[in-house]
Design a protein that fits this description.
Length: 371
């Protein structure tokens, strides 16, 4: 598969940083250009059509997540906002515990730690054991209210098997919340299959959209457990009936969207998702796996590189992190960035994250630039 038309990246750049912020596909740029041109010429004359794009975006997310209904999809600013809506929506009891892993990105740790004053305790389960899923399940007891876990860890790229976790949560009436920002767009995420109550992801990584717009999925049962903390004209049942004085919170996930939407990002992200859905999640995951196989083999063959990410295929998605025998990670990161190898300095190593369209030559060139 070649996608050079959709990703005409500057030839000097080896872009291996989709786990941070992705380049946009061409069609995303075109959607933004069209939308700005329309705003300049017509203002919001065609707002009803824009609302159809917004509905399409919800349906695209429904398809990507295999969600029961498009009305289970809320469009939020980012992952952190979705997680905060859960943390500050639930009615906590003194002594409740939340289970996370010891490798979480700060967004999925700080928000739970912030509940300390409400008597909520956070338990961090190490992912370094033989069977981390079993370790997470073993950490649950009567006090466990929620497991909140990243499907793929941001620094190591470690991928969890979510199904047994979701099944345990379902059996024990524990809420199951997945930070899927490092998965969605890289490999299939099926909210029904994993029994997720909440799934949140932002649009600017594997989904290849702009920053500022993400997805917050909730089942209708789970979202009824959340008190809404942001109010406005957009989150009520009879949205648009401005003269009406009585109101109730919308049944749908729109209840988490208090005011005007991010219409520019809606157009951009919907265009990017159209590419993902066109190629298909299965094909994308297959291509990405092939790219990751090539990348890890080449890194393994490099005399000065030690891969610190898990090597088993089922434990990785699109992230590989490594150290160098003589250069520190910051030094190596700076050296690579100077040579236009776009990567990240994470978890004590340099992190490479190609996407499904990344040409093999780009990865080979990046590796050839490692001393
Ligand atoms: C696992 C994970 N969760 C959350 C975030 C941050 O998400 P947001 O900026 O959408 O709040 C990141 C960003 O790198 C991440 O890797």
């Amino acid at each position: 598969m070649t996608f050079s038309d959709e990703f005409p990246l500057h030839p000097s750049v080896c872009y291996l940083n989709h786990a941070a912020v992705s380049p946009w596909p061409k069609r995303c740029e075109q959607a933004v250009q069209k939308f700005s041109h329309e705003n300049v010429q017509w203002g919001a004359t065609h707002y009803p059509q824009w609302m159809l794009v917004e509905k399409t975006l919800r349906k695209q997310f429904q398809a990507l997540l295999n969600a029961p209904d498009w009305q289970d999809i809320a469009l939020v600013k980012n992952t952190s906002e979705g997680l905060s809506m859960i943390a500050y929506g639930l009615a906590w009891q003194e002594g409740d515990t939340v289970i996370i892993s010891d490798e979480e990105f700060p967004s999925n740790r700080i928000v739970w730690e912030s509940l300390k004053d409400k008597g909520v305790r956070v338990i961090e389960v190490p992912l370094s054991g033989e069977n981390p899923e079993a370790d997470i399940i073993a950490a649950c007891d009567e006090s466990t209210r929620l497991i909140s876990i990243s499907s793929v860890q941001y620094a190591s790229g470690f991928k969890l098997n979510l199904k047994p976790l979701g099944q345990h949560c379902k059996d024990k009436q524990i809420l199951f919340c997945v930070d899927a920002i490092q998965s969605l767009g890289a490999h299939a995420v099926d909210v029904k299959d994993i029994h997720a109550d909440f799934v949140i992801a932002d649009g600017h990584k594997w989904l290849m959209g702009p920053e500022g717009l993400g997805v917050f999925f909730s089942t209708s049962e789970a979202r009824q457990q959340l008190t809404v903390n942001e109010y406005g004209w957009h989150m009520i049942e009879h949205v648009g009936d401005y003269d009406r004085k009585d109101w109730v919170v919308a049944k749908s996930a729109r209840r988490f969207e208090c005011g005007s939407p991010n219409m520019l990002a809606t157009h951009a992200l919907s265009a990017s998702l159209s590419l993902i859905l066109e190629v298909g999640m299965e094909a994308i995951a297959r291509e990405l796996e092939a790219k990751m196989n090539h990348l890890t083999q080449q890194l393994d063959a490099h005399p000065n590189i030690n891969i610190i990410s898990a090597k088993e295929k089922q434990r990785r998605a699109g992230i590989v992190t490594f150290t160098h025998t003589s250069l520190g990670s910051t030094e190596l990161y700076q050296l690579l960035m100077k040579k236009h190898v776009i990567c990240a300095n994470r978890g004590g190593g340099v992190r490479f994250s190609p996407h499904f369209y990344t040409p093999l030559e780009v990865m080979d060139k990046a590796i050839s630039l490692i001393p």
